[in-house]
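User: Run a structure prediction on this.
Assistant: Running it now.
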Amino acid sequence: MAGVPWCDTCERFLSPPTVLTGGKCPACGRRVEPGAARVGARSGSHAIRSDDDPVPLPWHFKLLAGALAVYLGYRAFQGIEWLAGQF
C-alpha cells in the first residue's frame, strides 16, 4: 500500500494527483512528505500508524458483541431446556 502525501503546515492529506511537481503542496507551496496514514491529524498529533499496529475496536462494537453473547447464551439455555423436556 503506497503512502499518502501529508502536508504538516496545512494539516491535511493530499491526493497524489494534486501534489505539484517537485512534491509541493498546492495550498501553501511547501514540500510534502509521503507517509502512512496519521492518527489524530486534526488534534495536531502527528503519530504515524504502521501497518503492524492493531486497530482498536470501538466501545459500541464491544457492547454489541457482549449483548449478542448474552442473547445467544440465553437462547442456547432455552434450547437445552426444551430438549430436556422432550424426554
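Helices lie at 59-86.
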